[in-house]
Amino acid sequence: MPTRQADTSVTEVESHADAASVRADAADDTLARAQSGDNAAFAELYAQHKRRVYSLCLRMVGNVTEAEDLTQEAFLQLHRKIATFRGDSAFSTWLHRLTVNVVLMHLRRKGLNLVSLDEAMDPSPESGPMRSFGTQDLQLTGSIDRMALEKAIADLPAGYRLIFMLHDIDGYEHNEIATMLDCSIGNSKSQLHKARMKLREALSVRHSTEVHS
User: Fold this and answer.
1) Which one, 24, 90, 196, 197, has the greatest CB density within 10 A?
2) pLDDT at position 42, please?
3) 3-class SS at 143?
4) Does position 165 have pLDDT exceeding 50, yes or no?
5) Torsions phi, psi of 115, nearest 5?
């Protein structure tokens, strides 16, 4: 009996692996056809990735109308540049970076100063001692109500939200963010620190309100 169960488990694993391989091959075929100018294949890519691209745009700009426009702009850019994709990274990663660049260009066209968007980025005395910048803040990534966290992120000043999104959610390193925003690594670290402080404050106030309600 144990042998039969083990054989069944192996079969299931192999079946899942085969299915994943088929999906990967289909995705590669769709991408290849889109790169060769097949509009139907590009429409498939749009359907597969539009929700993720829109979600990224919305988190970065915090405005539904702008996010919708930026989603369309990202796919226009994708249509122009898809033939340049060489497979050095996953397509989803490449599209993610393309989308981030579209959003950043939009913010620059609006005349926003991304380095000192909301207030000076140097650590202020009242912000307390600087914390570890290179790691996730466990107070913010633990078992917190997701909707509350998303609301707190949306309420952050635009500059703080952008840095927090790029670093703590999208996983960019500070040196990458500094290059993207044309600022110093120190400014990126400082703005992330202040974003985390504001998030902790907002979540703490919400938790206190719930406890006493």
Assistant:
1) 196
2) 96
3) coil
4) yes
5) -80, -45
Q: Which of 166, 153, 169 is nearest to 206 (CA)?
A: 153
DSSP state at residue 110: T
Task: Indicate whether 139 and 62 sit together in one domain.
Answer: no
Tell me if 54 sits within 8 A of 68, measured CB to CB: yes
The whole domain housing 205 covers: 128-212
- Reported for 51-55, long-range contacts at CB under 8 A and 24+ positions apart, including other chains, are 52/92, 52/96, 53/95, 53/99
CB-based contacts of 119: which residues, under 8 Å, 6+ apart? 157
Residue 7 lies in a domain: no
Side-chain-side CA neighbours of residue 189 (13 Å) = 12
CB count in 10 Å sphere of residue 193: 22
Q: Which of 23-32, 136-145, 159-168 has the lowest mean pLDDT?
A: 136-145
Q: Which amino acid is at 32?
A: A
191: number of Cβ within 10 Å: 28
Tokens (6 digits) for 193 = 């620190």
Looking at the domain assignment, is residue 61 inside a domain?
A: yes
Residue pair 164/188 in contact by the 8 Å Cβ criterion: no
